[in-house]
Design goal:
Blueprint (H helix, E strand, L loop, with lengths): L3 H34 L4 H12 L6 E10 L2 E9 L2 H5 L8 H4 L11 E5 L8 H10 L3 E6 L9 E6 L7 H43 L3 E6 L4 E4 L1 H7 L3 H4 L14 H14 L1 E9 L5 E12 L5 E10 L1 H14 L10 H14 L4 E7 L2 H8 L1 H18 L5 E6 L2 E6 L5 H14 L4 E3 L2 E3 L3 E7 L7 H17 L5 E3 L6 H18 L3 E10 L5 E12 L3 E3 L5 H7 L2 H21 L6 E5 L2 H4 L4 H12 L6 E6 H10 L1 H9 L3 E7 L6 H6 L4 E4 L1 H4 L6 H16 L3 E4 L5 H9 L4 E2 L16
Parallel strand pairs: 16-17, 19-21, 21-22, 22-23, 23-24, 24-25, 25-26
Antiparallel strand pairs: 1-2, 1-5, 3-4, 4-5, 6-7, 6-10, 8-9, 9-10, 11-13, 11-16, 12-13, 14-15, 18-19, 18-26, 19-20
């Protein structure tokens, strides 16, 4: 029979087990309370768990830690005796390899007991920690879930040899419960994040400005957002269950749709412009993107269609296209139209005459009566000239007080002279201005093909030289281009020679005009503008020599000098406290045709140390359209090295979404004549608004040029224009005069 002592020990074992289970149950209930009180933030959970364990293990140091990188341990939370000690010690992370010899028996995976005499095996700092706490062992348990496996619970008995077995078993219970609790909390967080993501996706779907249609694999519509109903006029109930064929305009052939579906099936997506029909029968353009959505088995389960209504953009494009080819004041074709019409006639062959007309002493009229009356006179002159010409003749306003006339299939020199005489006669009757009669005469220069040239530029140049001869002779007469080099040609040769020497003699200068962010009012960039400091003459603007430089090829070395100087100066400004400043440089068509342009720009950036993203190259619309033939690759090379590209004087050339789509454009600059009229002319305001809307739709920056008043700035800011430049902020000035 067992002794009395043995019976007492046996009787105590169930009691001890019961006490341990009670403690474990109490600990688990505390953990449960802590987790329910937390907001699923792991930091809050760790704090509450650690605080819940500490009362169950009095006289111990308890911590929860994670790996901090570079093999070190970072304590997330510490409780109990000696808490300050662990904060002052940099502990090595206890790797699986180091912990392996101390693993607990099977069934308690992720639990280790390390005697203090072997603590050095975890790292020297662990031995120091044990000595500082007079702890006999280190107990570690992995409590991180699968997504956070580096999270551990640690316990050191302070001033004790080892933990009691009951404490160890309690800790094992708690560690196992903590692992499950943290895993559950992680799952709740993941579920909450997924629910938030789904709710956000639903809100985006419902409120997106783009129309979104989802069909099943049989193309039956299963979901649409509000924008679809707004654009098409069909309600959601009318669309659900129907097919997208309901919207078909009938403009596209069956072959178009076969090719669209072939591409969609082969590539998984298709994008392009398409015409559809609204419920009211109106046909409208849209930019459509189609995607095939595959299920888990790899089969197409749904189709996704996202579209943008292009009606406003197309209308704006049509208006801009008309404006690009016509003079705003008179409504006549402009210089670009004139050159294109001459080229078309020359390609057809035959003899043609080009007449350039310049109003004599028109500056005096403007100075006397003012620009509004001067503009009215120009409209009257245009009207009389147009009335005097034959239907097959072509009249254009080339700019200022200069007009051009193309006479196709002219019989001979005398016939061209007869047309010039008719034009003189139609202007002979005085014009009435401000109750006064004003007489007006013109000087006319005439050139003939093929004798004076077989290209539009040659005919215009010879007619221009002849017109200047007519002015030199006193005006009010006509002159024909003569063989050989005339006075104007000689003058241009002299300018060309002086311009070549200007590069060698360092006579070129750069002035800068600030570009201001309309939202903040800060200067964010400058445009570099070329000047020529000609000895004996003074500062000359680019209008007097750039065209000649372009024609002779001098624009290439001049442009290279401008690039280097602009990059250098911008870097100087950046180093003086404006790191985000950018500089804009104009790019000519001759430069764009230079195969070494990208290399030259790269060299300029390297020499100056300027970041490529801080250089913006400006192209006029005619240059941009011209680049469609052979300069696209060059522009993409420039874009690839980080340089920005802008279209200058947008609205005066060949405004078209076609080149905006094909070319890597970053910015549109609105021509100043539109900007200056936004507060007084509803047409100018509408044009500027259309350009800003177009730019923002295409995710382009937009800069308004020629700003002169606070009212213009207020309007531009209201319609969402990004930046502005003009005399309101400052005239072009040398670098030292720019307030940067």
């Amino acid at each position: 029979m067992p002794s009395k002592g043995e019976n007492g020990a046996a009787a105590n074992e169930p009691a001890a087990e019961l006490a341990l289970n009670a403690k474990a149950l109490g600990a688990l209930l505390d953990l449960s309370d802590a987790l329910h009180a937390s907001d699923d933030d792991q930091t809050d959970i760790v704090r509450r768990l650690c605080g819940g364990i500490a009362p169950r293990h009095p006289g111990s140091l308890i911590f929860i830690a994670e790996e901090a990188g570079e093999g070190m341990l970072s304590a997330r939370h510490v409780e109990g005796m000696g808490a300050a000690v662990i904060r002052d010690v940099c502990l090595e992370w206890p790797t699986e390899h180091r912990l392996a010899p101390f693993a607990a028996p099977s069934g308690t995976c992720g639990f280790w007991r390390v005697p203090s005499r072997q603590a050095e095996l975890l790292g020297p700092s662990w031995k120091t920690l044990c000595a500082g706490l007079d702890a006999g062992e280190i107990v570690l348990a992995r409590i991180g879930a699968d997504t956070a496996a580096s999270l551990i619970l640690g316990l050191l008995p302070v001033r004790r040899a080892v933990l009691r077995e009951a404490e160890v078993r309690l800790l094992q219970y708690v560690a196992k419960a903590m692992r499950k609790s943290l895993a559950a909390a992680g799952e709740r967080r993941a579920l909450q994040q997924e629910n938030r993501r789904l709710r956000l996706a639903a809100r985006v779907f419902e409120h997106a400005m783009e129309g979104v249609i989802i069909t099943d694999a049989d193309q039956s519509i299963v979901a649409v957002n509000k924008s679809v109903s707004r654009v098409t006029g069909y309600s959601e109930d009318e669309l659900i269950g129907a097919t997208p064929r309901l919207l078909s305009s009938g403009r596209h052939t069956a072959e178009f749709y076969r090719e669209m579906w072939r591409t969609l099936h082969e590539r998984g997506h298709w994008k392009g412009e398409i015409w559809n029909r609204r419920k009211n029968g109106e046909i409208y353009p849209e930019l459509l993107s189609l995607s095939a959505i595959h299920d888990e088995g790899g089969d197409v389960g749904h189709y996704l269609a996202i579209f943008i209504d292009l009606t406003l953009q197309k209308e704006a494009e049509q208006r801009l296209s008309h404006l690009a080819l016509h003079d705003l004041l008179t409504g006549l074709p402009n210089r670009e139209s004139f050159r294109a019409r001459i080229d078309r006639a020359l390609r057809r062959g035959g003899r043609h005459a080009v007449l350039l007309l310049d109003i004599d002493r028109f500056k005096n009229i403007n100075d006397t009566f003012g620009h509004p009356e001067g503009d009215l006179l120009l409209k009257c002159v245009a009207s009389r000239l147009h009335a005097a010409m034959r239907p097959q003749d072509f009249l254009a306003r080339l700019g200022g007080d200069e007009f051009g006339v193309l006479i196709e299939d002219v019989a001979d020199r005398d016939a061209a002279g007869d047309v010039a005489h008719v034009l003189h006669e139609c202007l002979a009757e005085p014009f009435r201005v401000d109750r006064l009669e004003v007489g007006m005469t013109v000087s006319i220069g005439v050139s003939l093909s093929p004798g004076d040239g077989t290209e539009a530029s040659a005919l215009i140049r010879h007619a221009d030289a002849a017109m200047y001869e007519a002015k030199r002779a006193g005006g009010a007469n006509s002159e024909f281009s003569v063989p050989g080099i005339g006075a104007e040609v000689r003058r241009q040769l002299e300018i060309e020679s002086d311009l070549r020497r200007a590069i060698e003699r360092d006579e070129l200068r750069l002035h800068y005009q600030p570009q201001v962010d309309l939202a903040s009012g800060r200067i964010v960039g400058v445009e570099a503008l070329l000047r020529w400091m000609k000895p004996g003459v003074g500062l000359i603007g680019p209008a007097h020599f750039i065209a000649l430089a372009e024609e002779t090829g001098l624009i290439v070395p001049i442009g290279e000098w401008v690039l280097n100087e602009a990059c250098r100066q911008c870097k100087v400004w950046q180093e003086s406290g404006q790191p985000g400043l950018q500089v804009a440089v104009n790019l000519s068509v001759r430069q764009l045709r230079d195969e070494g342009l990208a290399d030259k720009i790269g060299a300029a950036l390297a020499r100056s140390g300027l970041d490529a993203a801080r250089l913006e190259l400006e192209l006029t619309e005619s240059v941009a359209v011209g680049s469609m033939e052979g300069g696209v690759a060059t522009l993409h090379r420039l874009r690839n090295i980080g340089v920005k590209l802008a279209v200058d004087d947008f609205g005066t050339g060949f405004s078209s979404l076609h080149y905006l789509k094909r070319l890597p454009i970053d910015c549109l600059k609105i021509e100043q004549t539109f900007v200056q009229g936004v507060t007084g002319d509803r047409h100018d305001a509408a044009i500027v608004n259309a350009i800003v809307t177009l730019a923002r739709t295409l995710d382009l920056q937009v800069v308004a040029e020629g700003v002169t008043s606070e009212e213009q700035i207020a309007y531009l800011r209201r319609i969402g224009c990004h930046q502005a430049q003009g005399y309101y902020y400052g005239r072009p000035s040398p670098a030292e005069a720019i307030p940067i």
